[in-house]
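Hi R.,

Here's the chain you asked about this morning:
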Amino acid sequence: MKRFFIIPLLFLSVLLSENSYSQIVLPDVTSPIVQKINILITPLQNLGPKNENAVKFNDVLKKDLQNAALFNVTSGASSSVKGDTVNYQALFEEGVDYVVGGQYKVEGQNLKIALRVFDVRQERPLGGRTYDASPGKIREAAHRFSNIVMKQLTGIDGFFTSRVVVVVGGRKRDLFIMDYDGFNSGQLSAHDALVMSPNCSKDGRKLVYNSDKEWDQDLYVMDLIPRVRDSRISSTFSLEQSAEWSPNGSKLVFSKNGDIYTSNAGGKNLKRLTKGYSIDVSPTWSPDGRQIAFTSDRSGGPQIYVMNAGGGNIRKITSGGYNSDPSWSPNPKVNKIAYVNVSGSSANIFTVNPDGSGTKQLTSGSRRNETPSWTPDGHFISFSSNRNVNSDIYLMYFNGENQVKLTKGGAKRFPTWCKR
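And the predicted structure, written out as C-alpha coordinates:
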Protein backbone atom coordinates (compact mmCIF):
# COMPACT_ATOMS: atom_id res chain seq x y z
CA MET A 1 0.00 0.00 0.00
CA LYS A 2 1.66 3.20 -1.15
CA ARG A 3 1.42 6.56 0.53
CA PHE A 4 2.59 10.05 -0.38
CA PHE A 5 3.50 12.70 2.17
CA ILE A 6 1.96 16.11 1.55
CA ILE A 7 4.65 18.79 1.65
CA PRO A 8 4.13 21.28 4.53
CA LEU A 9 2.81 24.70 3.57
CA LEU A 10 5.99 26.64 4.27
CA PHE A 11 8.00 24.41 1.93
CA LEU A 12 5.48 24.00 -0.90
CA SER A 13 7.17 25.43 -3.98
CA VAL A 14 6.49 22.99 -6.83
CA LEU A 15 3.93 24.63 -9.13
CA LEU A 16 1.51 23.12 -11.58
CA SER A 17 2.99 23.68 -15.01
CA GLU A 18 0.80 25.05 -17.78
CA ASN A 19 2.08 22.24 -20.00
CA SER A 20 2.18 19.44 -17.45
CA TYR A 21 -1.26 18.20 -18.51
CA SER A 22 0.42 16.70 -21.56
CA GLN A 23 2.04 14.14 -19.22
CA ILE A 24 -1.29 12.43 -18.53
CA VAL A 25 -3.88 10.80 -20.78
CA LEU A 26 -6.60 13.36 -21.42
CA PRO A 27 -10.28 12.41 -21.73
CA ASP A 28 -12.00 12.76 -25.09
CA VAL A 29 -13.98 15.91 -24.29
CA THR A 30 -15.34 16.15 -27.83
CA SER A 31 -17.17 12.83 -27.54
CA PRO A 32 -21.00 12.97 -27.61
CA ILE A 33 -20.96 11.24 -24.22
CA VAL A 34 -18.32 12.45 -21.80
CA GLN A 35 -16.66 10.00 -19.42
CA LYS A 36 -16.48 12.18 -16.33
CA ILE A 37 -13.42 12.47 -14.11
CA ASN A 38 -13.92 11.47 -10.46
CA ILE A 39 -12.29 14.09 -8.24
CA LEU A 40 -12.25 14.37 -4.46
CA ILE A 41 -11.81 17.77 -2.81
CA THR A 42 -10.72 17.44 0.80
CA PRO A 43 -11.04 20.16 3.47
CA LEU A 44 -8.07 22.49 3.80
CA GLN A 45 -5.98 21.65 6.85
CA ASN A 46 -5.51 24.63 9.15
CA LEU A 47 -2.01 25.36 10.46
CA GLY A 48 -3.27 27.66 13.16
CA PRO A 49 -6.62 29.37 13.87
CA LYS A 50 -9.59 28.22 11.83
CA ASN A 51 -10.96 30.62 9.22
CA GLU A 52 -14.35 30.47 7.47
CA ASN A 53 -12.80 31.72 4.21
CA ALA A 54 -11.03 28.37 3.85
CA VAL A 55 -14.46 26.73 3.64
CA LYS A 56 -15.58 29.36 1.13
CA PHE A 57 -12.54 28.61 -1.03
CA ASN A 58 -13.38 24.90 -1.13
CA ASP A 59 -17.06 25.58 -1.82
CA VAL A 60 -16.23 27.80 -4.82
CA LEU A 61 -13.72 25.26 -6.16
CA LYS A 62 -16.29 22.48 -5.86
CA LYS A 63 -19.00 24.51 -7.58
CA ASP A 64 -16.69 25.52 -10.42
CA LEU A 65 -15.77 21.94 -11.24
CA GLN A 66 -19.40 20.82 -10.97
CA ASN A 67 -20.39 23.56 -13.43
CA ALA A 68 -17.77 22.30 -15.88
CA ALA A 69 -19.76 19.11 -16.64
CA LEU A 70 -16.54 17.07 -16.99
CA PHE A 71 -16.16 16.06 -13.34
CA ASN A 72 -17.94 13.97 -10.75
CA VAL A 73 -17.07 16.00 -7.67
CA THR A 74 -17.17 14.77 -4.09
CA SER A 75 -15.97 16.76 -1.12
CA GLY A 76 -15.33 16.28 2.56
CA ALA A 77 -12.95 14.48 4.85
CA SER A 78 -11.79 11.05 3.72
CA SER A 79 -10.33 8.23 5.79
CA SER A 80 -7.92 7.73 2.88
CA VAL A 81 -6.49 11.22 3.28
CA LYS A 82 -5.33 11.76 6.85
CA GLY A 83 -3.05 14.50 8.00
CA ASP A 84 0.08 14.36 5.89
CA THR A 85 -0.57 11.08 4.04
CA VAL A 86 -2.55 9.98 1.00
CA ASN A 87 -3.62 6.35 0.73
CA TYR A 88 -3.65 5.91 -3.05
CA GLN A 89 -4.72 2.26 -3.01
CA ALA A 90 -7.80 2.91 -0.91
CA LEU A 91 -8.77 5.91 -3.03
CA PHE A 92 -8.35 3.84 -6.19
CA GLU A 93 -10.69 1.20 -4.81
CA GLU A 94 -13.20 3.96 -4.00
CA GLY A 95 -13.17 4.99 -7.68
CA VAL A 96 -11.36 8.30 -7.17
CA ASP A 97 -9.20 9.49 -10.07
CA TYR A 98 -7.72 12.66 -8.57
CA VAL A 99 -7.54 14.32 -5.16
CA VAL A 100 -7.20 18.00 -4.27
CA GLY A 101 -5.69 18.60 -0.86
CA GLY A 102 -4.11 21.54 0.89
CA GLN A 103 -3.36 23.62 3.93
CA TYR A 104 -3.84 27.19 5.03
CA LYS A 105 -2.84 29.64 7.69
CA VAL A 106 -3.94 33.15 8.59
CA GLU A 107 -1.44 35.99 8.19
CA GLY A 108 -2.97 39.31 9.25
CA GLN A 109 -6.19 39.73 7.27
CA ASN A 110 -5.03 37.40 4.51
CA LEU A 111 -5.33 33.67 4.03
CA LYS A 112 -2.25 31.87 2.75
CA ILE A 113 -3.36 28.71 0.95
CA ALA A 114 -1.25 25.87 -0.45
CA LEU A 115 -2.85 23.24 -2.69
CA ARG A 116 -1.85 20.11 -4.52
CA VAL A 117 -3.46 17.79 -7.04
CA PHE A 118 -2.75 14.06 -6.77
CA ASP A 119 -3.10 11.48 -9.54
CA VAL A 120 -4.51 8.42 -7.80
CA ARG A 121 -4.00 5.96 -10.66
CA GLN A 122 -0.39 7.00 -11.19
CA GLU A 123 0.17 7.36 -7.43
CA ARG A 124 1.93 10.68 -7.75
CA PRO A 125 1.42 14.39 -7.15
CA LEU A 126 0.90 16.57 -10.21
CA GLY A 127 2.11 19.76 -8.54
CA GLY A 128 0.62 22.62 -6.60
CA ARG A 129 -0.09 26.32 -6.21
CA THR A 130 0.00 28.81 -3.38
CA TYR A 131 -2.26 31.84 -2.93
CA ASP A 132 -2.05 34.80 -0.57
CA ALA A 133 -5.61 36.12 -0.69
CA SER A 134 -7.39 38.92 1.11
CA PRO A 135 -11.00 38.22 2.22
CA GLY A 136 -12.31 39.94 -0.91
CA LYS A 137 -10.14 37.81 -3.21
CA ILE A 138 -11.00 34.34 -1.90
CA ARG A 139 -13.46 33.64 -4.71
CA GLU A 140 -11.01 34.83 -7.36
CA ALA A 141 -8.23 32.64 -5.94
CA ALA A 142 -10.55 29.61 -6.06
CA HIS A 143 -11.55 30.43 -9.66
CA ARG A 144 -7.89 30.66 -10.62
CA PHE A 145 -7.12 27.28 -9.12
CA SER A 146 -10.19 25.82 -10.86
CA ASN A 147 -8.72 27.03 -14.17
CA ILE A 148 -5.50 25.17 -13.39
CA VAL A 149 -7.27 21.96 -12.44
CA MET A 150 -9.42 22.15 -15.59
CA LYS A 151 -6.38 22.59 -17.83
CA GLN A 152 -4.34 20.00 -15.97
CA LEU A 153 -6.93 17.24 -16.13
CA THR A 154 -8.79 17.90 -19.39
CA GLY A 155 -6.53 20.04 -21.58
CA ILE A 156 -9.29 22.67 -21.82
CA ASP A 157 -8.66 26.24 -20.73
CA GLY A 158 -10.84 27.04 -17.74
CA PHE A 159 -13.43 29.81 -18.00
CA PHE A 160 -13.83 30.40 -14.27
CA THR A 161 -12.02 33.75 -14.11
CA SER A 162 -13.95 35.09 -17.11
CA ARG A 163 -16.53 37.79 -16.55
CA VAL A 164 -19.94 37.81 -18.23
CA VAL A 165 -21.74 40.88 -19.53
CA VAL A 166 -25.54 40.65 -19.59
CA VAL A 167 -28.46 42.90 -20.47
CA VAL A 168 -30.70 43.53 -17.47
CA GLY A 169 -34.22 44.99 -17.56
CA GLY A 170 -37.43 45.03 -19.57
CA ARG A 171 -38.17 47.75 -22.13
CA LYS A 172 -35.56 49.93 -20.48
CA ARG A 173 -32.32 48.03 -20.09
CA ASP A 174 -28.67 48.41 -19.25
CA LEU A 175 -25.46 46.40 -19.29
CA PHE A 176 -24.10 44.71 -16.19
CA ILE A 177 -20.87 42.77 -15.73
CA MET A 178 -20.44 39.93 -13.24
CA ASP A 179 -18.27 36.96 -12.39
CA TYR A 180 -19.18 33.95 -14.49
CA ASP A 181 -21.17 32.46 -11.58
CA GLY A 182 -23.29 35.57 -11.00
CA PHE A 183 -21.32 37.10 -8.11
CA ASN A 184 -19.78 40.59 -7.96
CA SER A 185 -22.22 42.22 -10.36
CA GLY A 186 -21.72 45.85 -11.39
CA GLN A 187 -23.49 48.21 -13.78
CA LEU A 188 -21.64 49.25 -16.95
CA SER A 189 -24.07 51.52 -18.82
CA ALA A 190 -26.72 54.10 -17.98
CA HIS A 191 -28.69 54.17 -21.22
CA ASP A 192 -32.04 53.23 -19.70
CA ALA A 193 -33.02 52.27 -23.26
CA LEU A 194 -33.52 49.19 -25.42
CA VAL A 195 -29.99 47.81 -25.10
CA MET A 196 -29.30 44.48 -26.86
CA SER A 197 -26.69 42.05 -28.17
CA PRO A 198 -23.43 42.86 -26.35
CA ASN A 199 -20.35 41.09 -27.66
CA CYS A 200 -16.96 41.07 -25.98
CA SER A 201 -13.72 41.12 -27.96
CA LYS A 202 -11.56 38.02 -27.68
CA ASP A 203 -8.99 39.83 -25.52
CA GLY A 204 -11.72 40.96 -23.09
CA ARG A 205 -10.86 44.64 -23.45
CA LYS A 206 -13.77 45.96 -25.53
CA LEU A 207 -17.51 45.49 -25.81
CA VAL A 208 -19.79 46.27 -28.76
CA TYR A 209 -23.58 46.49 -28.41
CA ASN A 210 -26.61 48.22 -29.86
CA SER A 211 -28.93 50.72 -28.15
CA ASP A 212 -31.70 53.13 -29.12
CA LYS A 213 -30.53 55.69 -26.56
CA GLU A 214 -30.13 58.45 -29.20
CA TRP A 215 -32.89 57.63 -31.68
CA ASP A 216 -32.96 54.27 -33.40
CA GLN A 217 -30.71 51.27 -32.85
CA ASP A 218 -27.04 52.30 -33.14
CA LEU A 219 -23.76 50.57 -32.36
CA TYR A 220 -21.65 51.51 -29.36
CA VAL A 221 -18.16 50.38 -28.39
CA MET A 222 -17.24 50.31 -24.72
CA ASP A 223 -13.69 50.14 -23.40
CA LEU A 224 -13.56 47.85 -20.37
CA ILE A 225 -9.83 48.29 -19.71
CA PRO A 226 -8.20 50.40 -18.29
CA ARG A 227 -11.47 52.18 -17.45
CA VAL A 228 -15.07 51.92 -18.58
CA ARG A 229 -16.15 54.39 -21.26
CA ASP A 230 -18.27 54.05 -24.38
CA SER A 231 -18.90 55.89 -27.64
CA ARG A 232 -21.36 55.61 -30.51
CA ILE A 233 -19.72 54.37 -33.72
CA SER A 234 -22.71 54.40 -36.08
CA SER A 235 -25.02 57.17 -37.26
CA THR A 236 -28.72 57.68 -36.71
CA PHE A 237 -31.46 57.05 -39.29
CA SER A 238 -30.25 53.53 -40.00
CA LEU A 239 -30.83 50.34 -38.03
CA GLU A 240 -27.53 48.80 -36.87
CA GLN A 241 -27.56 45.83 -34.55
CA SER A 242 -26.11 42.45 -33.53
CA ALA A 243 -22.42 43.29 -33.99
CA GLU A 244 -19.66 40.78 -33.30
CA TRP A 245 -15.88 41.19 -33.12
CA SER A 246 -13.73 39.24 -35.57
CA PRO A 247 -11.40 36.65 -33.98
CA ASN A 248 -8.39 39.01 -34.20
CA GLY A 249 -10.40 42.04 -33.06
CA SER A 250 -9.66 44.13 -36.16
CA LYS A 251 -13.17 44.04 -37.65
CA LEU A 252 -16.83 44.08 -36.76
CA VAL A 253 -19.64 42.27 -38.55
CA PHE A 254 -23.19 43.50 -38.02
CA SER A 255 -26.61 43.99 -39.53
CA LYS A 256 -27.53 47.35 -41.04
CA ASN A 257 -31.04 47.93 -42.42
CA GLY A 258 -31.49 44.20 -42.93
CA ASP A 259 -28.16 43.45 -44.66
CA ILE A 260 -24.82 42.19 -43.37
CA TYR A 261 -21.85 44.56 -43.27
CA THR A 262 -18.30 44.54 -41.97
CA SER A 263 -16.28 47.50 -40.76
CA ASN A 264 -13.06 48.22 -38.94
CA ALA A 265 -13.05 48.27 -35.15
CA GLY A 266 -14.15 51.91 -35.14
CA GLY A 267 -17.16 51.40 -37.40
CA LYS A 268 -15.48 52.83 -40.53
CA ASN A 269 -14.60 51.32 -43.93
CA LEU A 270 -17.99 49.64 -44.36
CA LYS A 271 -18.32 46.72 -46.73
CA ARG A 272 -21.75 45.36 -47.66
CA LEU A 273 -21.82 41.56 -47.83
CA THR A 274 -25.48 40.81 -48.62
CA LYS A 275 -27.98 42.62 -50.80
CA GLY A 276 -31.58 41.97 -51.73
CA TYR A 277 -35.12 41.98 -50.44
CA SER A 278 -34.49 39.54 -47.61
CA ILE A 279 -33.80 40.49 -44.00
CA ASP A 280 -30.31 39.35 -42.99
CA VAL A 281 -29.36 39.70 -39.30
CA SER A 282 -27.36 38.21 -36.39
CA PRO A 283 -23.99 37.51 -38.06
CA THR A 284 -21.28 35.48 -36.30
CA TRP A 285 -17.67 34.72 -37.31
CA SER A 286 -16.12 31.30 -37.78
CA PRO A 287 -13.09 30.57 -35.53
CA ASP A 288 -10.63 31.37 -38.33
CA GLY A 289 -12.50 34.49 -39.49
CA ARG A 290 -12.97 33.13 -43.01
CA GLN A 291 -16.73 32.53 -42.84
CA ILE A 292 -19.80 34.20 -41.38
CA ALA A 293 -23.07 32.57 -40.33
CA PHE A 294 -26.24 34.66 -40.16
CA THR A 295 -30.04 34.55 -40.09
CA SER A 296 -32.01 35.25 -43.26
CA ASP A 297 -35.61 34.93 -44.43
CA ARG A 298 -34.60 34.71 -48.12
CA SER A 299 -36.17 31.26 -48.43
CA GLY A 300 -39.39 32.25 -46.66
CA GLY A 301 -39.02 31.85 -42.91
CA PRO A 302 -35.85 32.63 -40.94
CA GLN A 303 -33.05 30.07 -41.38
CA ILE A 304 -29.31 29.91 -40.71
CA TYR A 305 -26.94 30.54 -43.62
CA VAL A 306 -23.16 30.52 -44.00
CA MET A 307 -21.13 32.62 -46.44
CA ASN A 308 -17.52 33.58 -47.08
CA ALA A 309 -16.25 36.43 -44.90
CA GLY A 310 -15.99 38.65 -47.98
CA GLY A 311 -19.53 37.80 -49.11
CA GLY A 312 -20.63 35.19 -51.62
CA ASN A 313 -20.94 31.40 -51.64
CA ILE A 314 -24.07 31.62 -49.48
CA ARG A 315 -25.55 28.28 -48.43
CA LYS A 316 -28.43 27.35 -46.11
CA ILE A 317 -27.55 24.98 -43.27
CA THR A 318 -30.91 24.66 -41.43
CA SER A 319 -34.42 23.88 -42.59
CA GLY A 320 -37.88 23.65 -41.12
CA GLY A 321 -39.34 25.88 -38.46
CA TYR A 322 -38.08 29.27 -37.36
CA ASN A 323 -34.29 29.29 -36.79
CA SER A 324 -32.33 32.34 -35.66
CA ASP A 325 -29.53 33.82 -33.49
CA PRO A 326 -26.52 31.75 -34.60
CA SER A 327 -23.38 31.76 -32.46
CA TRP A 328 -20.23 30.04 -33.75
CA SER A 329 -17.91 28.29 -31.30
CA PRO A 330 -14.53 30.08 -31.19
CA ASN A 331 -12.78 26.71 -30.88
CA PRO A 332 -11.92 25.21 -34.31
CA LYS A 333 -11.86 21.70 -32.82
CA VAL A 334 -15.48 22.06 -31.70
CA ASN A 335 -16.52 24.06 -34.79
CA LYS A 336 -20.27 24.05 -34.18
CA ILE A 337 -22.91 26.73 -34.57
CA ALA A 338 -25.45 27.14 -31.78
CA TYR A 339 -28.81 28.66 -32.74
CA VAL A 340 -32.39 29.08 -31.55
CA ASN A 341 -35.34 27.13 -32.94
CA VAL A 342 -38.73 28.68 -32.22
CA SER A 343 -41.84 26.52 -32.20
CA GLY A 344 -45.04 28.20 -31.07
CA SER A 345 -44.42 29.89 -27.73
CA SER A 346 -41.32 27.80 -26.97
CA ALA A 347 -37.73 28.33 -28.05
CA ASN A 348 -34.83 25.89 -27.73
CA ILE A 349 -31.09 25.78 -28.38
CA PHE A 350 -29.71 23.54 -31.13
CA THR A 351 -26.26 23.06 -32.65
CA VAL A 352 -25.32 22.26 -36.23
CA ASN A 353 -22.08 21.71 -38.12
CA PRO A 354 -21.07 24.47 -40.58
CA ASP A 355 -21.97 22.20 -43.52
CA GLY A 356 -25.51 21.64 -42.20
CA SER A 357 -24.90 18.14 -40.83
CA GLY A 358 -25.13 16.90 -37.26
CA THR A 359 -28.14 18.90 -36.04
CA LYS A 360 -28.62 18.32 -32.31
CA GLN A 361 -31.25 19.66 -29.91
CA LEU A 362 -29.71 20.70 -26.58
CA THR A 363 -32.61 22.14 -24.56
CA SER A 364 -36.24 21.09 -24.39
CA GLY A 365 -39.55 22.09 -22.90
CA SER A 366 -42.26 24.67 -23.47
CA ARG A 367 -40.33 27.69 -22.15
CA ARG A 368 -37.94 30.03 -23.95
CA ASN A 369 -34.22 29.18 -24.15
CA GLU A 370 -32.51 31.90 -26.17
CA THR A 371 -29.42 34.04 -26.98
CA PRO A 372 -26.72 31.33 -26.98
CA SER A 373 -23.13 32.48 -26.40
CA TRP A 374 -19.95 30.39 -26.15
CA THR A 375 -17.37 30.49 -23.38
CA PRO A 376 -13.86 31.61 -24.51
CA ASP A 377 -12.63 28.00 -24.69
CA GLY A 378 -15.50 27.15 -27.07
CA HIS A 379 -16.73 24.04 -25.23
CA PHE A 380 -19.62 25.52 -23.22
CA ILE A 381 -22.74 27.47 -24.16
CA SER A 382 -24.44 30.06 -21.99
CA PHE A 383 -28.00 31.13 -22.74
CA SER A 384 -30.97 32.90 -21.23
CA SER A 385 -33.98 30.89 -20.12
CA ASN A 386 -37.28 31.54 -18.37
CA ARG A 387 -37.73 27.87 -17.43
CA ASN A 388 -38.04 28.98 -13.81
CA VAL A 389 -40.40 31.87 -14.70
CA ASN A 390 -37.78 34.65 -14.60
CA SER A 391 -35.23 35.06 -17.37
CA ASP A 392 -31.82 34.05 -16.04
CA ILE A 393 -28.47 32.93 -17.45
CA TYR A 394 -27.70 29.21 -17.70
CA LEU A 395 -24.65 27.22 -18.76
CA MET A 396 -24.30 23.82 -20.41
CA TYR A 397 -21.69 21.67 -22.12
CA PHE A 398 -21.86 21.82 -25.90
CA ASN A 399 -23.55 18.42 -26.06
CA GLY A 400 -26.38 19.72 -23.84
CA GLU A 401 -25.25 18.02 -20.62
CA ASN A 402 -25.15 19.68 -17.20
CA GLN A 403 -27.51 22.63 -17.63
CA VAL A 404 -26.92 24.82 -14.58
CA LYS A 405 -28.35 28.16 -13.53
CA LEU A 406 -25.70 30.85 -13.01
CA THR A 407 -27.75 33.89 -11.98
CA LYS A 408 -30.81 34.68 -9.92
CA GLY A 409 -33.15 37.63 -9.91
CA GLY A 410 -34.46 37.46 -13.46
CA ALA A 411 -34.60 39.91 -16.39
CA LYS A 412 -31.14 38.88 -17.65
CA ARG A 413 -30.48 38.24 -21.34
CA PHE A 414 -27.79 38.28 -24.04
CA PRO A 415 -24.79 36.85 -22.14
CA THR A 416 -21.32 37.44 -23.61
CA TRP A 417 -18.05 36.22 -22.13
CA CYS A 418 -15.10 38.53 -21.45
CA LYS A 419 -11.90 36.56 -20.97
CA ARG A 420 -9.34 37.67 -18.41
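The chain is about 10% helix and 45% strand.

Let me know if you need anything else.
M.
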